[in-house]
């Protein structure tokens, strides 16, 4: 395994569940790449019904691990979606038939999300969505792996001709039966070394965390707002454990060149300022001065901001996509089976374009 973000840790733990020997190479601090910071949204709503099904099965694995590891991994706050796209997404979720989801009226919004300003448009509640307790998940999974986690950077991969892959890291050269590359921003470079060009777009992103005014409410639903009513057409938010803080961001990445430099060095500051302005309009129950930022790289596939795919070459699997935190346990189980020679599910192959609206109907 290369990379100890949530995808690598989940895959490694799924391999341990199968009784396999694993080694996880991590060049930095586990969970401090794209998986860093408190809180993510677990939502079932997606445009592609295949991704809805993957998310549903991932939720079942989250529940199983939560029970076994004895820590809360997803809160029961629910996820509220606002805006005109809600009706289409509700249809996709209702067609799945196994996800409790419903439209909600203005009066109920105040109970589900007390800091929200008055809103009259379409709103949907995903009852079994919630806030992912990110650092609890990273800590619990990393704790289960113990010595299998190796602090080192992988520099190159090579297929040996002996049914193994040679992994050259800073301080070791080892052969492994199979390798899963979950290196986030580092995945495309390692794939390129194996002759694969992944269509990954790199961006930079910032999200703020804001204090809830007054006592922490018992329920603080996550939010996906595409309504435009509060000056932005793509905002997301999730509570931090304890409901005293709410993390809010705009669903946008700033442009980055191939070498990782920002095209406009002020772009992150201006995205952060827009997020604070959104908080002022949409969430008057929060103090609009951000407490702390979370800056990070994001990697996205061209067909959808929720797209995910796995490229395979000679027993090496390269994972790429965005919004993968929620998917990690389900994806990890699928990757573990693939690494053990049981094959990769068809929908995870790049030609399936998982996450793209309409792709399921076209039979890909
Ligand atoms: C602010 C923000 C908000 C988000 N909101 C959501 C959300 O609400 N819901 C959701 O589901 N997702 C969300 N996402 C996306 C989600 O967090 C990421 O898709 C997910 O964390 C990616 O995990 P990963 O394990 O693939 O990558 P990473 O966490 O980036 O892990 C990759 C690891 O590989 C290591 N590495 C890289 N190269 C090498 C190498 N050569 N050798 C060894 N180690 C290496 C890195 O140090 C890193 O730790 C959000 C992301 C951000 C940044």
The CATH architecture of the largest domain: 3-Layer(bba) Sandwich
Using the CA coordinates, give the radius of gyration: 20 Å
How many domains, in number, for the residues? 2
Task: Name the beta content range.
Answer: 25-35%
Mean pLDDT: 96
Distance N terminus to C terminus? 28 Å
Envelope shape = globular
Main beta sheet: strand number and arrangement? 9 strands, mixed
The CATH topology of the largest domain corresponds to FAD/NAD(P)-binding domain
CATH class of the largest domain: Alpha Beta
DSSP E strands, number: 19
Plain-language structure description:
With 364 residues, this protein is an alpha+beta fold. The protein has 2 domains: 1-74 and 133-200 and 303-364, 3-Layer(bba) Sandwich (FAD/NAD(P)-binding domain), CATH 3.50.50.60; 79-127 and 201-300, D-Amino Acid Oxidase, Chain A, domain 2 (2-Layer Sandwich), CATH 3.30.9.10. It has helices spanning 6-17, 49-69, 86-96, 106-112, 134-145, 187-193, 267-282, 328-339, and strands at 24-26, 40-42, 79-82, 101-103, 123-126, 130-132, 149-151, 154-159, 165-169, 172-176, 179-181, 201-211, 222-225, 235-239, 245-250, 254-255, 292-300, 308-313, 316-321. Helix 1 (6-17) packs across helix 5 (134-145), helix 1 (6-17) crosses helix 8 (328-339) and helix 2 crosses helix 8. The chain starts with 5 loop residues before the first helix and ends in a 25-residue tail after the last helix. 48% of the residues are buried. The model has no long low-confidence stretch (mean pLDDT 96). Flavin-adenine dinucleotide binds at residues 2-8, 25-28, 32-35, 40-41, 153-154, 182-184, 186, 205, 207, 249, 294, 296, 298, 322-326. Flavin-adenine dinucleotide is lined by residues 2-8, 25-28, 32-35, 40-41, 153-154, 182-184, 186, 205, 207, 249, 294, 296, 298, 322-326.
